[in-house]
User: Which sequence fits this backbone?
């Protein structure tokens, strides 16, 4: 089992002790993300910000920005994704997004990407902890992103 899968499994197990409480009628879901991105057998720390606007209890739209500072052999990678979200239950969130990957360094590159994502939300008092996993499809290659978001609904 690779390190991203281990991190996700340990996070899910440790968070299962939290009490479950509904987020109510909140429409805005800003988030802070910390995790890791694995691409071409290289795994690097990833941080980011996300936002979802819930159109209904089952559907939402949003966006995410992620920074992998040491990604692409130290050149650094920024990812922007706009997503459509489906909530099949109170805890699960599935996403389909489209965006751009920008690689820094001496020769800046811009590549389009498609993202499939899934998260499971643990409701706390005024916040949500959500272990997440996403797969980015970029020019026929795949990058895997896994981590935890802290969400503050209002």
Assistant:
């Amino acid at each position: 089992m690779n390190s991203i899968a281990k991190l996700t499994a340990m996070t899910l197990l440790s968070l299962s002790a939290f009490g479950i409480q509904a987020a109510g009628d909140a429409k805005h879901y800003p988030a802070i993300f910390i995790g890791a991105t694995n691409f071409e057998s290289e795994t690097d720390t990833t941080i980011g910000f996300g936002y979802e606007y819930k159109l209904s209890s089952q559907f939402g739209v949003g966006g995410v920005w992620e920074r992998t500072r040491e990604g692409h052999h130290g050149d650094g990678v920024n990812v922007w994704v706009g997503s459509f979200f489906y909530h099949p239950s109170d805890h699960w969130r599935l996403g389909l997004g489209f965006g751009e990957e920008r690689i820094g360094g001496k020769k800046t590159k811009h590549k389009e990407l498609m993202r499939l994502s899934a998260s499971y939300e643990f409701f706390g008092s005024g916040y949500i902890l959500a272990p997440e996993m996403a797969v980015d499809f970029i020019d026929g290659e795949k990058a895997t992103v896994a981590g935890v978001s802290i969400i503050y609904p209002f």
Remarks:
- The helical segments are 3-15, 71-74.
- Residues 81 and 148 are 17 Å apart (CA to CA).
